[in-house]
Amino acid sequence: MTAADSWSPDQYSRFQSERSRPFFDLARMVDRRPGMAAVDLGCGTGELTAELHRSLGDGETLGVDNSASMLERAEKVVQPGLRFERADIATAIESGPYDLIFSNAALHWLPDHPHLIERLTARLRPGGQLAVQVPANHNEATHTVAALVAAQEPFRTALDGYVAPTHVLEPVAYARLLHSLGYVEQRVELRVYGHVLDGREGVVEWVKGTTLTVYRERLAADMYDAFLAAYRSRLFDEVADQRPFFFPFSRILFWGRRP
Predict the structure, then answer these.
(1) CATH for 210
(2) pLDDT value of residue 15
(3) Full residue range of the structural domain in which residue 93 is found
(4) Quick check: pTM over 0.85?
């Protein structure tokens, strides 16, 4: 199973309304100007990229993702000035230059954010803007339990010792980074989004569409089913059985403009 195959558009879209809220908050940070050349790194199924493109007006927008299944959905929203391309984000970073580099809930998969943001900055035109949202829930049970289960047998052996790393920096580190890279304007915010789910089982369905994909792609189907069962059991030891279930999710949004 490839990394691309581990992404399920249907699973991801189960919480489309909740997942789109940070996108629109990030998009509102952007200073829209006529004729902008924009790229959306990690565009997924493309619906939100289409929203971004419409909001920018008469420019050109490229959506990039490495999941064939996600991009199959994206083809449905292709329109004048908007196109999609299958590519690894790390490779796509070398394209450009752009007036806007936008990424919603994707860059947390990539390592070495100081170097990453430096590379992105180099692909911006003078006056260009960088707008990024990354999940920051890595200290919550949804993520810590996954790491604990991955470290126990038989999963440790099946995963060859792999445990999903955390690449996201603290908010103040992004502020310092943008300053050091010469951004003349910036905004960095930590926001907690409260989601009300039917019950705690909804949390499992949420992470199946994102956080657990890195384990699904590395495990045989029967082993992943066992992993998921162990994860569910251990997670339910950590979170209360409440209906409805309040699921807070922290995210970092940052924006900057080059001189």
Answers:
(1) 3.40.50.150
(2) 58
(3) 4-257
(4) yes
